[in-house]
Amino acid sequence: MAQILVTVDLEDWFQVENLRSCFPIDTWQNCELRLEEPTHKLLEVFDAYNIKATFFVLGWIAKRLPNFVKKISSHGHEIASHGYGHKLCCDINQSSLREDVLKSKRILEDIMSRPVTGYRAPSFSTNKTLVSILKDTGFVYDSSYNDFSAHGRYGSLHGSWKEVRPGLLRNHEGFYEMPVSNLKFFGRTIPWGGGGYFRLIPLWLFNKGVKRILSKRGSYLFYCHPWEFDPGQPKVQGINWNHRFRHYTGIGRNLKRLENFLKNFKDNQFEFLTCSQFVALGKQAV
Ligand SMILES: [Zn+2]
User: Fold this and answer.
1) pLDDT value of residue 182
2) Ligand 1 centroid to 15 CA: how many Å?
3) pTM
4) In terms of CB atoms within 10 Å, which of 2, 9, 86, 205 comes out highest?
């Protein structure tokens, strides 16, 4: 049976890379925290279809909303890390990256009272240094590789990785990578993993693409963010049209769209797993 992994990067509207120029980290404390309401809506949808997701939680958010993180976990979802300050791996040096990764891990583990073993890099900006830091600091897997190379912020995967099952890579140190799913079409890579692409592509076509990925690859990894389900968020001025378009398009209808998307695949008897459950399957295969 093919598997679907639903993942949520838990960050708020002012922490996204497209708005970075307007909201450096020292301004975040003055911004309205809005993610609880759209996240509650996501939890309701996941509960309605009995889907357990993986939440990659930003440490900065977890520090301010520890009980909310516990609440997400109480619905049966996996809590993993999205770093602390949403810094791109390629923009900071090794010691700052290590500090950011460890800070988020400690905050989340203090809240959860159990090991946090998964990580997703901000804007999928993974690299070789990050993978060695993650392995070194007790993480088991990363889910940050996106092979849509036309996007300038996305990182790369170095070294030798073996596919232990469709959608799950393992390196020689026993560390795992779960890449974001993209569509391969006539030798081209088309972004099909979620986020803004999910909001932009007509749902019937998106579903068709996901079915193709599932039949060709055997698994599909989807990602979204709570701010993509928050139509009331402040409309930021002073950003370029491209970032504005990518950030705001389709937000008003996105919750219904997500519900229809999940219902369609749930009705078709696909298996929904958390990232850790998926890694556990991979370990059996090794
Ligand atoms: Zn993010």
Assistant:
1) 93
2) 7
3) 0.94
4) 9
Tell me the CA–centroid distance for residue 285 and ligand 1, in Å: 31
Compute the average pLDDT of residues 7-19: 91
Between CA 67 and CA 3 the distance in angstroms is 30
pLDDT digits (tens, 9 = 90+) for 38-67: 999 999 999 999 999 999 999 999 999 999
CA 86 to centroid of ligand 1, rounded, Å: 6
Helices (H) and strands (E) in the chain, counts: 10, 12
Residues 6+ apart with CB under 8 A from 123: 17, 88, 153, 154
For residues 244 and 16, what is the distance between their CA atoms, to the nearest angstrom?
12
Which residues fall inside 5 Å of ion ligand 1, going by CB? Answer: 9, 11, 122
Which DSSP symbol is given to 159?
A: S
* Residue 238 CB burial class (10 angstroms; 0-12, 13-18, ≥19): exposed
Task: Dump the DSSP string for 19-74.
Answer: GTTT--GGGGGGSPP-THHHHHHHHHHHHHTT---EEEE-HHHHHH-HHHHHHHHH
Query: How many Å is the maximal CA-CA distance in the chain?
Result: 51
Residue 5 has pLDDT above 80, yes or no: yes
Average pLDDT rounded to a whole number, residues 144-162? 75
Instruction: Dig out the tokens for 243 from the structure.
Output: 């970032």
Which of 279, 286, 284 is CA-nearest to residue 78?
Answer: 279
Token output for 64? 């301010």
For residue 1, the CA-to-ligand 1 centroid distance in Å is 30
> What residue ranges define each of the domains in the chain, with the CATH number in brackets?
3-285 (3.20.20.370)
Which of 154, 61, 64, 136 is CA-nearest to residue 98?
A: 136
Higher pLDDT, 19 or 99: 99
